[in-house]
Amino acid sequence: MVKKALKSAIGVSIGVTIGSIILPGILFSKLYNNTYPPILEQTLIYLVLSYIVCFLISFLIEWLKIKIKKADKF
């Protein structure tokens, strides 16, 4: 259950980071020249935070699936 949540969180967190930091930084580079914190730091922060949130959500979903299967047996 934990391994499945860890694996699924990787892809989602990379997608969130690309979509929220990297693509806007490339497409609107004039707006992102003097950002604080720098884009590399923003990328790392987004990657870590989105990974934690995605892991927790995936873990909760897997836990609920197990609880529902156990409840259906009774």
Rounded to an integer in angstroms, the radius of gyration calculated over CA atoms is 17 Å
Cα end-to-end separation: 22 Å
Helix/strand structural class: mainly alpha
**H and E order:** HH
* Number of spatially distinct domains: 1
Number of strands: 0
How much of the sequence lies in strands comes to under 5%
Shape: rod-shaped
Provide the low-confidence segments as ranges.
none
Give the fraction of residues assigned to helices: over 70%
Given the structure, what is the number of helices? 2
Largest sheet: none
Mean pLDDT across the residues is 86
Keywords: Membrane, Transmembrane, Transmembrane helix
Transmembrane segments: 12-32, 44-64
Could you characterize the architecture of this molecule?
It is a single chain. With 74 residues, the chain is mostly helical. The chain has one domain (2-73). Helix content is 82%, strand content 0%. It is built from two helices and no strands. The chain has helices spanning 2-27, 39-73. The radius of gyration is 17 Å and the shape is rod-shaped. The mean pLDDT is 86.
In terms of topology, how is this protein built?
Blueprint (H helix, E strand, L loop, with lengths): L1 H26 L11 H35 L1
Helix pairs in contact: 1-2
